[in-house]
Amino acid sequence: MSEGGPKICHACNQNIPNHWVIGLDHFWHQDCFTCGVCSRVVDAKETFYVKNDRPVCHRCQTKNFVEKCKVCDEPIIGNRLIHLDIHYHYTCVNCKKCGQPFKEDQHDDIVILQNGDFVHKGCK
């Protein structure tokens, strides 16, 4: 990225005469700094992610690239239960013995039976 010479947009390879965005170590026209998934202009102040050297907006990142819960099919942000590479929200899985949902702070008290059922350690 050259600071002193002409500024060339990383997306369209055209000269940027004024009002540019610097992102991912490149110059961009403001209207060219778009989400690589939905093509929406990504504001310089919003959180974005990177996929294939392109910005990806938070909505598309969550919708397309974050693991989803096997029970509710919603994205999982943060802690989760994982068994056999299947992801679950803690609150979407109930103990097969007492029927109560699990909580993140109970992680060490969760037992997975041979048949794949989740149970509280005290409910075995």
Strand order of the largest sheet: 1-2
Helix-strand pattern, N to C?
EEEEHEEEE
Runs in which pLDDT lies below 50 for 5 or more consecutive residues are none
Distance between the termini: 61 Å
Q: What is the number of E strands?
A: 8
Radius of gyration: 22 Å
Strand content: 15-25%
Relative helix content:
under 10%
The count of helical stretches stands at 1
C-alpha geometry: rod-shaped
Mean pLDDT: 89
**Biggest sheet features:** 2 strands, antiparallel
Q: What structural category do the secondary elements indicate? A: mainly beta
Key words describing this protein structure:
mainly beta, two-stranded antiparallel sheet, two-stranded antiparallel ribbon, 124 residues, single chain
Textual characterization of the structure:
- The chain is mainly β and 124 residues long.
- It is built from one helix and eight strands; from the N terminus they run E-E-E-E-H-E-E-E-E.
- A hairpin with a 2-residue loop joins strand 1 and strand 2.
What's a concise summary of this model?
This protein is mainly beta. The chain has one helix at residues 58-65; strands at 20-23, 26-29, 48-51, 54-57, 81-83, 86-88, 110-112, 118-120. A hairpin with a 2-residue loop joins strand 5 and strand 6.
